[in-house]
Amino acid sequence: MKFYRAIASFQMALLGTASVAVAQQLKPRPMQTYFVPLPETDIFYETFDRINAIATAPVMSIISVSISTDNTIVWYDEWEDDYDQSVDQPGSTTKIWGDGIASNGCAPGVTPCTNTNDRLRAGQAIILENWVDLPRNNKQIRFDGGDRIQASFPIAVTRAQYPKEPGSLLAGAAEVFDTMRWGREFVAPVGQDIRGANYRDAFEYTALYMMAEEDDTIVTLPDGSKIFLDMGKSHLVRVNMGAKISADHNIQVHVLAGDIGSTYEMRWFALVPAAIWSSEYITPVGDSTAETKVVCYNGGTSSITVDYQYFTGTTLQRKTMTLAPNTVGQSLFIPTNSGARFNSTGKFIALSTSDTLSSTSGQIYDWGFPVMPRSQLSSQVLIGWGYGCTGKVCVGGQGSRSVVWITPTANADLYIDYNNDGVVDSQVAANYLSSTRITDTDNDMTGAMIWATVRNTGPFGTAVDIAAAWGQDGSHGVVNPGDTLLYTIRIQNLGQVDVNINGLTIINNGVPPLTTYIPNSVWYKPDGGAAPIKVPDKTTGTPNPLDAEGIPNPVKLTKRGGTHEIVFAVTTQGTVDRIIPNNGFIVQSDNRPNLPFAVDIPLVVPTAQPKVANNNNGTVCIPLTARREVRRQLREEGRRERRRLAEEAIYEA
């Protein structure tokens, strides 16, 4: 099987307590959830203005959404009028792109907006740009920080901003992680106490921006104080190196660093959780002009030695740096046309920083990014926001100043599909640790797909690191005892060719605790719109056919981007426990590793429930005019209960 990625996405739909017609409930659900970080008010007053007081509002907000798969549906939920309880009950300002219903919106740039045109295709880039006036008025709906983006298939999201003055000279951009890549413990690898000639005040200003996924998240700040953050709300704190923050629910964190009083040095980094720090990293960026260097931080309790290697011409250079606990080190600059590999016996984190020259004071080519752990790499990449220059208005060859950098982990052929339409536009031979720069003639790499295969095996040849597992709680709602939960296991081909996946076996590790399996509720939905297939219950042991040996995947993914879904239903039991865990794995053939999946659903027992009528046909009927109020009451009940429990936990601690 070539260029195959199985995504086991767990999703939950909250249904009525009457009988469930499972086969009729198979409709697109969110596979990924993103929250747009870095709200404009904080960015302007606490970062732009701190770097240089010349900064003038308003702020240009840029959010890029790149589509990987045909027929993706994107739900764009504005924070200004509160988040929707679920995608089945969208608010008046929520946009739904790609569902074939023009009345709820088409993606920006789609004209005319008709049902036929309301379709998203692989490689399509949705660029959301607007000025955001300050102070912020939440009656003005904008594409900005705090908005929630959900997608039925994987997407890539990038966030960028700059003030009106001095414009994009004082700009920053960072990748946005979907909520499955968020975490609960983070450590600042850099800080305001990092000084000296080697760093040229690059971290004189350092702030951690954090954002919560759930209401009433308790965040412990570096000084030990605790704050509450609701869903999509943000907080920032200025930090020194090694500062730690933790939370009782998942948060996302970005590091913003700069030189105070400069014109204008600033770098943004998406911070990975401490739990996935690694002992090996590979960076694709080498630049002799900007003298790109890699900063490595040891957050452990013992000294470590970091070995790193890069090429000068055809000669492999090997270097080392020794890092004491809670210290940082900086590599020599990585030359043009070379990437670099960093490894150690202990775990550490690495950041790439460009423009470290004394001649430019870090103010010309200043940018940076978090170097991804080797274990997080894949053989293919979807480019998020890839403008060659501000607003794509490029003159004098400036369009080639912003490029995509690629480094293979072995000798390989790189294939570039600029529009992600399934047609290879360019091919490049690349050696191990070489750095290849890729640009497009239209000064925009947004939405491009780039992948690598073993040298001379062709675009569909042998590839590595293409299997990944994702999980998603698609509700973020209140689940009560007696509710029916519909779980969906989604398997998708994200590769470049049609593949046969008969060798897969789907296993769920028993019925989730605190629930009861609903007999005869397992259905299999094949790719291509075919009718759902009923999977019979077992006649021995537990009735759930997903238990124990599991079920084989019976059919073939017949197309690039194809998807299969397996669903089953359970009923929550009358209990006051707070979490319903569920997990399982996909067994692959050919000795490939198993692909795990997991999701934890909060179970909240409100003190009172709204009065609704049941029509006995499997759905709960709530008058249209009352839906907003019902959702508000449900969230408020859950918020009060979670805050009470959180305050008790703080008191006990």
Report on this model:
With 653 residues, this protein is mainly beta. Among the domains are: 9-19 and 470-602, Immunoglobulin-like, CATH 2.60.40.1510; 279-375, Hypothetical Protein Tm1070, Chain: A (Sandwich); 377-388 and 403-464, no CATH class; 622-652. The protein is built from two helices and 40 strands. Strands 10, 11, 12, 13, 14, 15 and 16 form a seven-stranded antiparallel β-sheet that branches. Keywords: Signal.
Task: Briefly characterize the structure.
Keywords: Signal. By secondary structure, the protein is mainly beta. It contains 2 helices and 40 strands.
- The CATH topology of the domain at 9-19 and 470-602 corresponds to Immunoglobulin-like
Give the CATH H-level superfamily of the domain at 9-19 and 470-602.
Answer: ntegrin, alpha v. Chain A, domain 3
Gyration radius over CA = 25 Å
| Low-pLDDT regions | 1-25, 359-364, 392-400, 464-479, 575-634, 645-653
> Structural class given helices, strands, pairing?
mainly beta
The whole-number mean of residue pLDDT values reads: 76
Number of helices: 2
Strand percentage lies at 35-45%
| Highest-level CATH class of the domain at 9-19 and 470-602 | Mainly Beta
Shape: globular
Helix content percent band: under 10%
CATH architecture of the domain at 9-19 and 470-602: Sandwich
| Main sheet summary | 7 strands, antiparallel
Number of strands: 40
Distance between the termini: 52 Å
Organism: Phaeodactylum tricornutum (strain CCAP 1055/1)
Signal peptide: 1-23
Keywords: Signal
Protein name: DUF11 domain-containing protein
List keywords for this structure.
single chain; 653 residues; mainly beta; Immunoglobulin-like; Hypothetical Protein Tm1070, Chain: A; 7-stranded antiparallel β-sheet; 2 helices; 40 strands; disordered C terminus; DUF11 domain-containing protein; signal
